[in-house]
């Protein structure tokens, strides 16, 4: 906006400022004068030492050794000047030679005796810069010394004449002091000024003195050291004389005084310069108040006018000091700073009285300051530090609030002007017209400003000042302000709304609409800077921005386009882009996102659509090209991308996605991508010699860029479980993964936040079968495995080895930790099943050193199952690499389904036992002793883990570290089963059944033949009461009876039955023809072994469990559909073991008929879909598309809501997961799939199943949130240690009791149940 006007403004400041630059090798006349002054000061300080010398030779010797004898040597201005001069001249030479010396020393090119100091001294003295410096110094000092000698003689003769004249004037009564000509300081020495001389100088500067006397005195003042002047007792009177002389009609007076002031500002401390500053500010204030200044705004301003130019120089000197003072005033008393601040604010507040005829048109000092410092840099520096900001804002509030009122008024006046012009026509008249600006740019010598231009400059200054003021709490306290022409006061919200409206009401020029704001003074550019700063702040600043009024103002153009009303906005695309930029910044914060989703007051969000609804509706219209005003615009794709990015910020979160789901935005983006993809394929190949080659190339690039934008938008849906499910429905999964992988290869996302986002996306995708397959086909897994192998076995080729690599201290070297965690994130059971199912181990006879693994099966073959000498010899770092593989195996086996798969396909236990058997010492008699090393310790731990089922108090896992002392590893090793008994915890004692009134009431309710209305609710309340009081009583037969009777009752109610089930009668004679899979057989063995340990099963329990599993499979098969898919998990049988059915079998104490009956009745309830995962395998109750994705409702429903509640209830835990690149949904899916086996003790597993059945399926979600709450401190600690995934998968949930968190779960139920149950009930029609 107005580039010509404002650049001329800067030119005016430059004219006033003058040229200060010079080359250090050339001395000007000003430099010579300055050197004379400083040399006089030095001679004055050492006068006594020199005069006391017996001879000239001794005086020279004293001067030569002055640094050794004078402790103030380095404080002399002359010495400081020389030191800085030498540093500036030969400093670069020294730095260059230092770098050369260091480089040469590294290459052993410098001999040992040639030290750095000697080398630098020699090279510096030989340099051209040094010779030129010495020549220049010698010449200038000869001139200075000669001038001092000559000046001394001239002054002596001149002072005699002055003294005689003064004597005559004193005799005539003109003077009243007792100045003696014989004792005049001018006759004593030229090298310093005594108090008598300063007294005389002060008297001669009195305005009543003749002009010639004052001019000569001013000349002497300019050559005097400022420190002598300011520290003199005559300074107060001298300051008064100088202040009055500044108003002298003769310009030479003000020029010389300003020169003295400038020298004072640059060379004196703040405690002295503040008096000079306040003096100058007071002079200007009196000048503007005196009436001499009769300029009006409407008349404009001619900078070339002599009087105006002189005034500008004074204001410029003030402004320069304003910018420099904050760097030093903190070292002085606050009163000094307050004097400077108050004198400034008092000056800027000058205005005519209200009844003065020129009052509204008064060209006050603030206009001149704005002309020189249009962006109010002085105010920014003054408010940057709290030390000064507190004083500035306190004075503004108490005495000078009119300054703020005037600034606010100026902003409103400009807005009203723009609004009025916008209503007249789309083009802006007057000095806003682009043609006028171009003419102004051509006439660079024109230094005159019209009234409108001055008003605009003051508006920019006011805007920048207010933008800075409002980001501070103390600044916000100045609001509201009351303006004369407004009935209502102006609040902070009103100001932010005004700033926002300026974005689309201020003039624009389409040619540079979406480029960087080249004109840094354009209103929309300045407003954008202010609002961007607001968006980046937190606390009270953000609270001011996050209001419905501001959001409504931002969305005004969007709402107008949606409603079809007339839009009077210049360059609509640029406006929409700026609006989208601010909205995206708001959405990036938690509070801002909440505001867009729910509004300022969530209770009112139901009355009118919130900002999120408006934005997504507008984005859909953009994608469908339904906006006629924007159709055909070249900038339309950029605007689309900007609004898609806002939506992306919302649907990356669970709560945002939940609100956007009804709009089907994923389908709109996918449709746009498909169209763009077809278009990119149809771009014609350029013909040789054709003129359209460049345009086709540009079109192709733009199309590709738009396609990548859409793919990135689709990819970000996979940040959440439900979003990933929606991404599956678009059919763009493979393309999105390919795009992500190609972006990673190109190193496009270097931002840490984006990198963590990619890790989360990969983790989410690995939890689903289709996602894992897409990662495999894209080459992502191959790249991950290759990178791991290069770190583990090869090291980095680009590092030159200068010393042997140290042996790793940790089991997994730090360089491999990231790859280790990435593999853990990737290898969930769905991924492992798709990648390894029916895959044979390579087991090659020979492995080449150059043979690099490229798949997960290769990692297992080369690092885990080392069952041949060929595999061992193929590793450069056998022990380190094998430990890495064993640690990976240990984490994988924590997921019981993965353990069963690895054990049945690759006999992992036998491989480990064989390795242990071979790792023994040779003994002449009897068996050898196990060798205790890192590998044997790891194998021992894994063998115990994979062969024992149990919670934290039911099994004992050996440590993987050695103890100090005589027995470093007390845990017994073994090479065959059964395990040593020391790893089995004591058999838990059954709780003694004691009569309890609450339990009696619960059993009475259960056995009541009549079930009146409200019976279910009463039953649940009584159950909770018993759980809280005596949770140990809910176990064994009591628990079995409670859930059995309750499920039987619900299954008889049509309202409670969610699934329809056919009739099925178990027939043992039929099912005997069927056989269980190897995975199920091994699962049965593990279940029976665990049940026997718990004293729940008898010897023949294995057949009973097989009977249950086979009948369940046949029973559920009646409700399954046939699906043609390449996914391994969608082939006939359920991919995994039925841990829920096995749990019910244990609860029923091995009663197979009772278990099967319960499961049949249970299968018709909604809760069965979330507790019993095989229940919905290939189910006809789910939409065909849901079945084809291979994603279970537990993932896209339960796990999705777990992540959403976690962010609301435990934000620190949620952040810890994101920082780790891990997801709560993955670990929760693992817990739920295996019914918390190995993570909780059996009693707590029973309570988990009971609360989900009796209290509702949403308690599965509350249970997981409670677990995270229990683990919060551990999660934060392990996030810092960068092993959160390992901790959550390997460690049992120590100390967690369901009953302890039942109250907390009930609180969650009161808040979230309506939403959760509503969503859970939609799984049958989940094809959104």
From TrEMBL:
<keyword id="KW-0217">Developmental protein</keyword>
<dbReference type="Pfam" id="PF23431">
    <property type="entry name" value="BROMI_N"/>
</dbReference>
<dbReference type="Pfam" id="PF14961">
    <property type="entry name" value="BROMI"/>
</dbReference>
<dbReference type="InterPro" id="IPR032735">
    <property type="entry name" value="BROMI_M"/>
</dbReference>
<dbReference type="InterPro" id="IPR035969">
    <property type="entry name" value="Rab-GAP_TBC_sf"/>
</dbReference>
<dbReference type="InterPro" id="IPR039156">
    <property type="entry name" value="PHAF1/BROMI"/>
</dbReference>
<dbReference type="InterPro" id="IPR055391">
    <property type="entry name" value="BROMI_N"/>
</dbReference>
<feature type="domain" description="BROMI middle region">
    <location>
        <begin position="196"/>
        <end position="874"/>
    </location>
</feature>
<keyword id="KW-0963">Cytoplasm</keyword>
<keyword id="KW-0969">Cilium</keyword>
<keyword id="KW-0966">Cell projection</keyword>
<dbReference type="GO" id="GO:1905515">
    <property type="term" value="P:non-motile cilium assembly"/>
</dbReference>
<protein>
    <recommendedName>
        <fullName>Protein broad-minded</fullName>
    </recommendedName>
</protein>
<dbReference type="InterPro" id="IPR055392">
    <property type="entry name" value="BROMI_C"/>
</dbReference>
<feature type="domain" description="BROMI C-terminal Rab TBC-like">
    <location>
        <begin position="892"/>
        <end position="1323"/>
    </location>
</feature>
<dbReference type="GO" id="GO:0005929">
    <property type="term" value="C:cilium"/>
</dbReference>
<feature type="domain" description="BROMI N-terminal">
    <location>
        <begin position="35"/>
        <end position="161"/>
    </location>
</feature>
<comment type="function">
    <text>Required for high-level Shh responses in the developing neural tube. Together with CDK20, controls the structure of the primary cilium by coordinating assembly of the ciliary membrane and axoneme, allowing GLI2 to be properly activated in response to Shh signaling.</text>
</comment>
<dbReference type="GO" id="GO:0005737">
    <property type="term" value="C:cytoplasm"/>
</dbReference>
<dbReference type="Pfam" id="PF23440">
    <property type="entry name" value="BROMI_C"/>
</dbReference>
